[in-house]
Specification:
By secondary structure, the protein is an alpha/beta fold. It has 14 helices and ten strands. The strands form two sheets. Strands 1-2-3-6-7-8-9-10 form an eight-stranded parallel barrel, surrounded by seven helices. Strands 4-5 form a two-stranded antiparallel sheet. α11 packs parallel to α13. The termini are far apart. The structure holds 2-O-methyl-1,6-di-O-phosphono-D-mannitol (5MM). 2-O-methyl-1,6-di-O-phosphono-D-mannitol binds next to α12. This is Fructose-bisphosphate aldolase. InterPro entries: Aldolase_I_AS, Aldolase_TIM, FBA_I. Pathway: Carbohydrate degradation; glycolysis; D-glyceraldehyde 3-phosphate and glycerone phosphate from D-glucose: step 4/4.
Length: 352
């Protein structure tokens, strides 16, 4: 492992003013997104949609530092035969790859999940590196139980169990160590879901337990913190919580939480949006960066909060490509500003 090079890539991924586009929807997830805009999820349509994003010159060159791809996409070529990975590189962004293989039920822990994909990971990483990937991503999913039965956020107050937190942290660290051995920067994503009716303080407590355990495992498995990026959730109220925390409260509690668990050796933290609205995700990131000074760079690694608007504007029609690119550039610019704490809500209204 060459740590200086890993650190260089990690720092580039969190370049001030830029952030990461999470375009790594698995086939099931992209189908759901396409269903919502009435587009059939064929291999060509998925390619056309992602090609539209990666050819968004303004967004990609000014505000996007890296793109997380799904396995299918990293091997795809644009309509003119150029590998999609090359489009990303030509725009000055870094290609990355999601390497987890989704979740499975965790035995003896009803309602909880463990992320899988460690088998043959070393060989897969070598192939992805050869194709151009310089960072990877693995997402662990931790649910916060609440009332009711069935579905995320409803599994009861004993969720998450310490078992789910430990096995997921262990897998995250195994993945991260394998990435660094393959000269690939790991994005470590322990996502505490915002589904459910819990309040912001319960989210804070659970996320603190999850992050502490994750960093403990990373240390045990000798992951070099200078060569990784953390992708956490924010401390935020559950979607169904009757009392929704304000933007300022989310920002202050998230910064306090991260300061208590994330060592300063980590070069950057790139948040997931997790189901927040586009503008909320931007406002929260901006408010955190306005707090400063912080020991690490704080930016975005959004999926839905960057793509919902371009997906709607595009709606599968070649005639709408320019509109889709404009919508993507706008969200990327807003989040780029939030990554330096220079966004304000007025910019959204003026653009509308
Ligand atoms: C883009 O969505 C990613 C893929 O999810 P699936 O494997 O379930 O299809 C997801 O991992 C994403 O990279 C992050 O969770 C961030 O996305 P959001 O939408 O929460 O910002």
């Amino acid at each position: 492992m060459n740590l200086a090079d890993l650190n260089k890539v990690a720092l580039a991924m969190v370049t001030p003013g830029k952030g990461i586009l999470a375009a790594d929807e698995s086939s099931g997830t992209i189908k759901k997104r396409f269903d919502a805009i009435k587009v059939e999820s064929t291999e060509d349509n998925r390619r056309d949609y992602r090609e539209m994003l990666f050819r968004s010159q303004e967004a990609m060159s000014k505000y996007i530092s890296g793109v997380i791809l799904y396995d299918e996409t990293i091997w795809q070529n644009a309509k003119d035969g150029t590998p999609l990975v090359k489009l990303i590189e030509q725009a000055g962004a870094i290609p990355g790859i999601k390497v987890d293989e989704g979740t499975q039920a965790l035995p003896a822990c009803p309602g909880e999940l463990v992320t899988v994909g460690l088998d043959r990971l070393a060989e897969r990483l070598a192939k992805y590196y050869e194709r151009g990937a310089r960072f990877a991503k693995w997402r662990a999913v931790i649910d916060i139980g609440g009332g009711g039965t069935g579905g995320r956020g409803t599994g009861g107050p004993s969720i998450p169990t310490m078992t789910a937190i430990r096995v997921n942290a262990h897998a995250l660290a195994r993945y991260a160590a394998l990435c660094q051995a393959a000269q690939i920067v790991p994005i470590v994503e322990p996502e505490v879901l915002m589904d459910g009716d819990h309040d912001i303080d319960r989210c804070y407590d659970v996320t603190q337990r999850v992050l502490n355990r994750t960093f403990q495992e990373l240390r045990v498995q000798r992951v070099a913190l200078e060569g990784m990026i953390l992708k956490p959730n924010m401390a935020i109220s559950g979607k169904k919580c009757p009392k929704q925390a304000s933007v300022q409260e989310v920002a202050e509690k998230t910064v306090r939480l991260l300061k208590s668990c994330v060592p300063a050796a980590v070069p950057g933290i790139a948040f997931l949006s997790g189901g927040q609205s586009d503008e909320e995700a931007t406002a929260h990131l901006d408010a955190m960066n306005k707090i400063g000074p912080l020991p690490w760079r704080l930016t975005f690694s959004y999926g839905r909060a960057l793509q919902a608007a371009p997906q709607k504007a595009w709606s599968g029609k070649a005639d709408n490509v320019a509109a889709g690119q404009r919508a993507f550039s706008h969200r990327a610019r807003m989040n780029g500003l939030a990554s330096t704490g220079t966004w304000d809500a007025g910019l959204e209204k003026r653009a509308a």
